[in-house]
Design goal:
- 2 copies of one chain form a homodimer.
- Chain A has 187 residues and is an all-alpha fold.
- Chain A is 73% helix and 0% strand.
- The longest helix of chain A has 25 residues, at 47-71.
- The termini of chain A are far apart.
- The interface between A and B is large, with 41 and 41 residues.
- Chain B binds a DNA duplex (18 and 18 nucleotides) through α3.
DNA sequence: GTCTATAATTTGATAGAC
DNA sequence: GTCTATCAAATTATAGAC
């Protein structure tokens, strides 16, 4: 059930990530999936609809990943580290997912999608920082600034990794990266 | 001299920044510039050529901006702060320029352009961090990690600003943002 | 549900007059 | 250098048989 649909999404993700949304035509997707145009338009109302489904699916998935971490009973420092570790791992094992979520310019082809930063995964990061301020682990800061400082370095490294600009695996930077992030906001 | 050319570039920047490169046709540029197709193709070999010229121009401009700051005789900490202040100011006064440089997916429409991170402005940030390690101001770190930590937070805030997600002007976050960045890497 | 064939637009780009 | 008119190709999407 929904097997063809899933395959369309998988192929589309691959192509969007590889060549970009606008450099991928429905015919490209059709070809790569070994299907016909008709089959695709039976499952989706159009190319934008495919991107939209993909966006919801992947944001939801990342949300679940982070929520697990945020819910864990531990210090904010430890949780932030696990979150970064998860993000690094995801970027290594499924770069297409990371690329689509992070630097697909959703607003360019999904006019109705909210900016990535107002999406649940990013809200979770914000909430974590606010919680840290509540417990006194994190010093008093505009929460937005705190979240940017705590996770901004990690996100930059992920971008660099996706662009193929890092010589070593992301994981090898984990310790230093988290250390930097924490020093930035620690009380 | 080169007046028409400049106008084409200005209009293209505006439209690219507003709607994205792929949602902007040469006919759109023609219309917005009050010119004809012929005039545009006389000055540029095509749409991609316009984007390329724009890319070179703006990266060069940002490069000059940063180089001025990096050359100033002061501590690495102070210089990094000035750089962030300049970037914030540019993002406020010329968001189209910042948008084009930062989050236009250059590789999608300029296959020959190097990734933005390997471009001179970003190399300067890296060099600044390395210099700080030399003088002992910055603790020993993989330079890439250090640069990501020192400027990652600021870049995130700029992205948020460009997405209209910041309630207050960027400048109001400058002090806290720079403080966070410096704590992350200070020796 | 999947196919082929095709319609309707749009796009990047060229030709040639002025 | 700028214009208008036009082309060729590609793209999204639909129609209708099976």
């Amino acid at each position: 059930m929904g097997d063809t649909r899933r395959q369309i999404l998988a192929v589309a993700l691959q192509l969007f990530s590889e060549n970009g949304y606008f450099n991928t035509s429905v015919h490209d997707i059709k070809r790569a999936a070994g299907l016909s145009i008709g089959a695709i338009y039976h499952h989706f109302s159009g190319k934008e609809s495919i991107a939209q489904a993909l966006h919801e699916l992947l944001v939801e998935r990342m949300s679940a990943l982070l929520e697990e971490r945020v819910a864990a009973a531990a210090t904010v420092c430890e949780r932030s580290r696990w979150i970064v570790a998860d993000l690094f791992a995801l970027a290594e094992t499924e770069p297409t997912v990371m690329r689509f979520i992070l630097h697909a310019r959703h607003q360019e082809f999904l006019p109705d999608a909210p900016p990535i930063c107002s999406t649940r995964p990013f809200q979770l990061l914000l909430k974590l920082v606010e919680e840290g301020m509540g417990t006194g682990e994190v010093r008093a800061l505009e929460p937005t600034v705190g979240a940017a400082a705590l996770f901004g370095g990690a996100l930059r490294l992920i971008h660099l990794h996706l662009d193929g600009m890092l010589p070593a695996p992301l994981a090898s930077y984990l310790d230093d990266c988290c250390d930097c992030g924490w020093r930035a906001v620690a009380a």
